[in-house]
Amino acid sequence: MALTNLLISQIIEKESKEVEATSELVRKDEAAANIQAAEAQALKDECEADLAEAIPALEAAMSALNTLKPADITIVKSMANPPAGVKLVMSAVCVMKDIKPEKVNDPGGTGKKILDFWGPSKKLLGDMTFLTSLKEYDRDNISL
After folding, report:
1. CB-hemisphere CA count at 13 Å for 8?
2. Tens of pLDDT along 33-48?
3. For 95-135, how does the pLDDT look when each residue is reduced to its tens digit (9 = 90+)?
4. What is the pLDDT of residue 144?
5. Residue range 73-100, pLDDT digits in tens
6. Of the candidates 137, 129, 134, 57, which has an alpha carbon nearest to the alpha carbon of residue 90?
7. What is the DSSP letter of 99?
8. Residues 73/130, Cβ–Cβ less than 8 Å
9. 123/72 Cα distance (integer angstroms)
10. How many other C-beta atoms are found inside a 10 Å radius of the C-beta of residue 117?
11. Which residues pair with 113 in a beta bridge?
12. Per-residue model confidence (pLDDT) at position 120
């Protein structure tokens, strides 16, 4: 009987140690999971804040886009040297549409070549479906 009690107590002690070790692993895994969950929540909060800031700009851009007429596009296309804002917007459109810039001589007279989107922009502005393509652009899947 004493031997049986001794064996039972050894088995219980061994199993208790195994349970304790497993419990420690579970606690560590839970702590790591909680850290990851907190990081994910922080990232989600940051993304939602950025989105809340971007949505009014998107809505304003869509409203402005809806006011454009083909005649407006023709006027912009005919500009030899458009204002900086026009060049900036058209450069952004080219980037969004994966249109590469041209290498042109630096107007500053450095003799170096610079990347210029105005030539490709004028070609893009000549596309009869340009306005439609902007309105139908898949803005939910823009790659970075």
Report:
1. 5
2. 999 999 999 999 999 9
3. 999 999 999 888 877 888 999 999 999 999 999 999 999 99
4. 64
5. 999 999 988 999 999 999 999 999 999 9
6. 134
7. P
8. yes
9. 15
10. 20
11. 105
12. 96
CB neighbour list of residue 118: distance below 8 Å, 6 or more residues apart: 82, 87, 90
Integer Cα distance of 20 and 32 in angstroms: 18
Q: Tell me: pLDDT of 6 over 80.
A: no
Which tokens belong to 134? 């902007």
- Residue 103: count other Cβ atoms within 10 Å of its Cβ: 10
What's the one-letter identity of residue 8?
I
Q: Is 102 exposed, middle or buried (0-12, 13-18, 19+ CB in 10 A)?
A: middle
Residue type, 33: A
Domain range list for the chain: 1-67, 69-136
Is the backbone of residue 116 left (phi > 0), alpha (psi -120 to 50) or beta? Answer: beta
Is 0.90 surpassed by the pTM of this model?
no
**Two structure tokens written together for 62:** 């869509």
The Cα–Cα gap between 21 and 15 comes to 10
